[in-house]
């Protein structure tokens, strides 16, 4: 089976109903995506399919063929996505286990809604459980990243004009 993962073409020999999570972790060694509940309830396994957040524990790998799969390893080539920088600035993670899933959900949110309000953030992030309770810092970091991305866009437009 041929997959596009983080902009690379990868071949895997697996049964079509294998959950995407296990293909990523066990066959492609992309262990940044975590296993939590295995039942689409916790969000630890969140990755993007064509830019949309999905729960990779509950997506058969066959459904990802022909689509762009992005994992936390591919969120930014330099590891400096505005959300990653904001996560550092706000010191978001505690144990860290849920955080790659949180970042992937947050990135999908900002792609769809570059200026989310508190309610938008609550709705978009409600499927990502954090046993350490970092929700307040996650919300702050998303606001920080959104403001930085909006500022960068205004600066770009200024340069272009
Ligand atoms: S491991 Fe996929 S949602 Fe929990
Ligand atoms: S930081 Fe520990 S589960 Fe979220």
From TrEMBL:
<keyword id="KW-0001">2Fe-2S</keyword>
<dbReference type="InterPro" id="IPR036010">
    <property type="entry name" value="2Fe-2S_ferredoxin-like_sf"/>
</dbReference>
<dbReference type="InterPro" id="IPR002888">
    <property type="entry name" value="2Fe-2S-bd"/>
</dbReference>
<keyword id="KW-0411">Iron-sulfur</keyword>
<dbReference type="Pfam" id="PF00111">
    <property type="entry name" value="Fer2"/>
</dbReference>
<dbReference type="InterPro" id="IPR012675">
    <property type="entry name" value="Beta-grasp_dom_sf"/>
</dbReference>
<keyword id="KW-0408">Iron</keyword>
<dbReference type="GO" id="GO:0046872">
    <property type="term" value="F:metal ion binding"/>
</dbReference>
<keyword id="KW-0479">Metal-binding</keyword>
<dbReference type="InterPro" id="IPR036884">
    <property type="entry name" value="2Fe-2S-bd_dom_sf"/>
</dbReference>
<dbReference type="GO" id="GO:0016491">
    <property type="term" value="F:oxidoreductase activity"/>
</dbReference>
<dbReference type="GO" id="GO:0051537">
    <property type="term" value="F:2 iron, 2 sulfur cluster binding"/>
</dbReference>
<dbReference type="InterPro" id="IPR001041">
    <property type="entry name" value="2Fe-2S_ferredoxin-type"/>
</dbReference>
<dbReference type="Pfam" id="PF01799">
    <property type="entry name" value="Fer2_2"/>
</dbReference>
<feature type="domain" description="2Fe-2S ferredoxin-type">
    <location>
        <begin position="1"/>
        <end position="75"/>
    </location>
</feature>
<protein>
    <submittedName>
        <fullName>(2Fe-2S)-binding protein</fullName>
    </submittedName>
</protein>
<keyword id="KW-0560">Oxidoreductase</keyword>
<dbReference type="InterPro" id="IPR051452">
    <property type="entry name" value="Diverse_Oxidoreductases"/>
</dbReference>
<dbReference type="InterPro" id="IPR006058">
    <property type="entry name" value="2Fe2S_fd_BS"/>
</dbReference>
């Amino acid at each position: 089976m041929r997959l596009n993962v983080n902009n690379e073409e990868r071949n895997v020999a697996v049964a079509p109903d294998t959950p995407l999570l296990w293909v990523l972790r066990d066959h492609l060694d992309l262990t940044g995506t975590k296993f939590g509940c295995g039942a689409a309830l916790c969000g630890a396994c969140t990755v993007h399919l064509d830019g949309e957040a999905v729960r990779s524990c509950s997506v058969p790998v066959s459904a990802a063929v022909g689509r762009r799969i992005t994992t936390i390893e591919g969120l930014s080539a330099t590891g400096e996505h505005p959300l990653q920088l904001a996560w550092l600035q706000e010191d978001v993670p505690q144990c860290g286990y849920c955080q790659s899933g949180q970042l992937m959900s947050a990135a999908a949110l900002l792609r769809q809604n570059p200026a989310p309000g508190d309610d938008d953030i609550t709705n978009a992030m409600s499927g990502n459980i954090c046993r350490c309770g970092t929700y307040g810092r996650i919300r702050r970091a998303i606001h920080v990243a959104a403001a930085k991305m909006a500022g960068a866009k205004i600066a770009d437009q200024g340069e272009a004009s």
